[in-house]
Amino acid sequence: MTKPKVLISDKMDPNAAAIFRMRGCEVDEITGKTPEELKAIIGQYDGLAIRSSTKATQEIIDAATNLKVIGRAGIGVDNVDIPAASAKGIVVMNTPFGNSITTAEHAIALMFALARQLPEADLSTQAGKWEKNRFMGVEMTGKTLGLIGAGNIGSIVADRALGLRMKVVAFDPFLSPERAVDMGVEKVELDQLLDRADFITLHTPLTDQTRNILSKENLAKTKKGVRIVNCARGGLIDEAALKDALDSGHVAGAALDVFVTEPAKEHPLFGTPNFVATPHLGASTNEAQVNVALQVAEQMADYLVNGGVTNALNMPSLSAEEAPKLKPYMALAEKLGSLVGQLTTGSIPRISIHTEGAATELNIKPITAAVLAGFLRVQSDSVNMVNAPFLAKERGMEVREIKTEREGDYHTLIRVSVKTEDGERSVAGTLFNNSEPRLVQLFGIKVEAELAGPMMYIVNEDAPGFIGRIGTLLGENGINIGTFNLGRREAGGEAVLLTSVDSAVPAAVLDQACKLPGVKRVMALAF
Ligand SMILES: NC(=O)c1ccc[n+]([C@@H]2O[C@H](COP(=O)([O-])OP(=O)(O)OC[C@H]3O[C@@H](n4cnc5c(N)ncnc54)[C@H](O)[C@@H]3O)[C@@H](O)[C@H]2O)c1
Ligand SMILES: O=C(O)[C@H](O)COP(=O)(O)O
């Protein structure tokens, strides 16, 4: 088996390359490439490991003919075109916790830098000025910190600020009142935060809702003398309005680690009094870089070598505990999806995934993704569990998930139903020995079949002599039968045959089968 090949395209702790090699991947470390240079080489790689410098744009993704996974050694993935990656079936992963403490500490460090004007005091002192009376700071104890965004990093900042005896108020629409109580913060609306905070720190991703959250208007609503720290993403603050507010003295200090345009080698804010800048250093400690490098390499290698998925942003994650239990269910789900996909034509406005009995205890998302992948792969080879939900949505398919905890005829069951122009059609399967996928119902007819390899599907009238005739036809054409699975609605009624064969049935043989007495439909299937 050829080894998966990974490109590390941003500066990363050497542990990442070591882990990739240890886990059986080939790895190249090539940093500082221009987009054109990256485009020229990306086709060779199965995995791309990045930090924030590499931009995984639509153009790069289009050129990435073999790419299966993009791993971000860090948190923010605004440098990855996730819809483009999803459409191409590429998993995008990040390491959501590896650098949170370090970044929170940087935010606290910048708050202290502003409170005591540390950078200016250092410059002045080392210039031999000893300006003891110029630098009058403020105490943080007793002051109010306004957190915009109270997720992983925001909550660590809150914890440290409470340790400094600050009062913490937080604006985060997704923060539950219970979590706010646990964190020891007061949940407030943005306007209240702006009105009350002596310090403001930002900890949200950059989205349409958070872009310019500290706009000119909102900066005007802040308390006079406020100090602002942004260690999250450039674009959360209107930089021109911030410059005006610093110049007017309304804002007493601002510290930015991140900028609208990076690298920020020149900027109107540079040189403004009470302004502190760092070059996107939030995650830059030895500890955080080792954490994210180890984690991203483990996660990516897991996916490339074993198909394990952790911290993916565009597909359901499978924990190490869940994976072994879910694996046979996903195989069953994919086969059922594929069977329905092969047996139905025309537009499918709705697909329903119904679990019964033991299957209901599992995370249904990977099962749904596997059904959709099996179903849509009939139309395109490039469909996988990552892009299948996305493609289903794009094709206007409603996806329903239904659970019935009570067991029916089987202790565990997955039923896949599609709405077609001729009505609802469904197939169902179970697991024998908790591990072997079996089809148990096909369009309302009970059967028992293993869906594997090349198969032939026949719908016929139940009548004596049919089995002999079909056996003879296949035998005369040198096609060996593996399994022979029959089912019927009632004696003499509609019957189905699903037979596995050792070689694909040629079109001419399918034609001859179609002409046998009582045969209504014949199809070759493949699993
Ligand atoms: N400077 C750096 O080097 C550095 C390092 C790590 C992370 N970051 C950035 O910090 C940010 C936060 O990271 P995190 O790990 O805490 O993320 P997180 O997802 O854990 O938390 C983000 C929080 O923002 C909240 N949020 C979303 N929309 C909001 C809105 N409109 N208003 C207010 N709150 C909103 C979410 O509810 C969530 O609680 C990310 O953008 C990340 O990229 C920067
Ligand atoms: O989102 C992140 O993790 C930070 O912005 C860190 O970025 P970096 O890996 O480029 O330092």
From TrEMBL:
Record-annotated D-isomer specific 2-hydroxyacid dehydrogenase catalytic domain positions: 6-314
CDD domains per record: ACT_3PGDH-xct, PGDH_4
EC top class named in words: oxidoreductase
Protein EC: 1.1.1.95
Segments forming a coiled coil: none
Domain ACT: 459-517
Pfam families (alphabetical): 2-Hacid_dh (PF00389), 2-Hacid_dh_C (PF02826), ACT (PF01842), PGDH_inter (PF19304)
Primary role: Catalyzes the reversible oxidation of 3-phospho-D-glycerate to 3-phosphonooxypyruvate, the first step of the phosphorylated L-serine biosynthesis pathway. Also catalyzes the reversible oxidation of 2-hydroxyglutarate to 2-oxoglutarate.
Organism: Novosphingobium anseongense
One of the record's GO molecular function terms: phosphoglycerate dehydrogenase activity
Name recorded for this polypeptide: D-3-phosphoglycerate dehydrogenase
Family of the protein in this entry: Belongs to the D-isomer specific 2-hydroxyacid dehydrogenase family.
Domain (D-3-phosphoglycerate dehydrogenase ASB): residue spans on this chain: 325-442
Pathway: Amino-acid biosynthesis; L-serine biosynthesis; L-serine from 3-phospho-D-glycerate: step 1/3
PROSITE patterns: D_2_HYDROXYACID_DH_2, D_2_HYDROXYACID_DH_3
InterPro entries per the UniProt record, alphabetical: ACT-like_dom_sf, ACT_dom, ASB_dom_sf, D-isomer_2_OHA_DH_cat_dom, D-isomer_DH_CS, D-isomer_DH_NAD-bd, NAD(P)-bd_dom_sf, PGDH
Every D-isomer specific 2-hydroxyacid dehydrogenase NAD-binding domain range: 108-282
Keywords from the named record: Amino-acid biosynthesis, NAD, Oxidoreductase, Serine biosynthesis
Record field: catalytic activity: (R)-2-hydroxyglutarate + NAD(+) = 2-oxoglutarate + NADH + H(+); (2R)-3-phosphoglycerate + NAD(+) = 3-phosphooxypyruvate + NADH + H(+)
